[in-house]
């Protein structure tokens, strides 16, 4: 492959990478409050992505503060959030999970929707999708019930708790190396063009 074809191929790949970054967005939150354990600790991470048209993909992960205490049958048993939407939405839930509207989540209060499984269908991570929602229609503020962890220091007998929060994790910008790579490709294209003339 000659230099010109190599540059064209690399330019096309860079364009696809940048286009994908511009079109798809992901918003990340941390739940750092609890009804039982100490507040101010990062307990769960919520990631919401719109990489598929007319669909939001949710992923909820327990973080080391909980995962390090995982016992038998550990995992997320329920998750709740609020949204504003004028359209009909459809939930794609894990096997054995169900949907409930206007449900309370301990001290976090009432939520528009709660999805929940049974003790035998706990998830870690929890992944589900919602058709008909956009990132703009999801309101900050989430809650989750996690069960099946061993006793925490200073909290004897605690094997489950509710967690909530809405701390937004700052978006990570496209790495500088990508921009540098792109400008280098453009420079090579200019050199190849001069050689041709």
In round numbers, the mean pLDDT is 83
Helix content: 10-25%
Amount of beta strand: 35-45%
User: Could you name the ranges where pLDDT drops below 50 across 5 or more consecutive residues?
Assistant: 16-23
Widest sheet: strand ordering: 6-9-4-3-1-12
Number of helices: 3
Q: How many strands, which pairing sense, and closed or not: the largest β-sheet?
A: 6 strands, antiparallel
Classification by helices and strands: alpha+beta
Alpha carbon gyration radius? 22 Å
Shape, per Cα inertia axes:
globular
Count of extended strands: 12
- What is the CA-CA span between the terminal residues? 20 Å
Question: What is the ordering of alpha helices and beta strands?
Answer: HEEEEHEEEEEEEEH
């Amino acid at each position: 492959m000659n230099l010109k074809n190599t540059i064209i191929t690399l330019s096309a790949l860079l364009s696809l990478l940048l286009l994908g970054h511009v079109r798809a967005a992901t918003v990340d939150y941390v739940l750092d409050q609890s009804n039982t354990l100490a507040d101010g600790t990062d307990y769960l991470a919520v990631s919401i992505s719109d990489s598929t048209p007319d669909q939001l993909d949710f992923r909820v992960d327990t973080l080391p503060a909980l995962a390090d205490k995982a016992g038998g049958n550990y995992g997320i048993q329920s998750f709740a959030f609020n949204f504003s939407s004028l359209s009909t939405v459809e939930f794609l839930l894990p096997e054995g999970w169900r949907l409930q509207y206007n449900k309370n989540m301990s001290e976090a209060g009432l939520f528009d929707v709660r999805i929940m499984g049974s003790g035998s269908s706990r998830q870690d991570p929890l992944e589900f999708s919602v058709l008909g929602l956009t990132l703009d229609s999801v309101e900050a503020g989430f809650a989750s019930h996690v069960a099946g962890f061993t006793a925490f220091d200073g909290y004897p007998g605690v094997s489950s708790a509710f967690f909530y929060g809405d701390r937004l994790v700052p978006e990570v910008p496209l790495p500088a190396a990508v921009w540098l790579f792109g400008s280098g490709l453009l420079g090579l294209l200019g050199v190849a063009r001069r050689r041709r003339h």
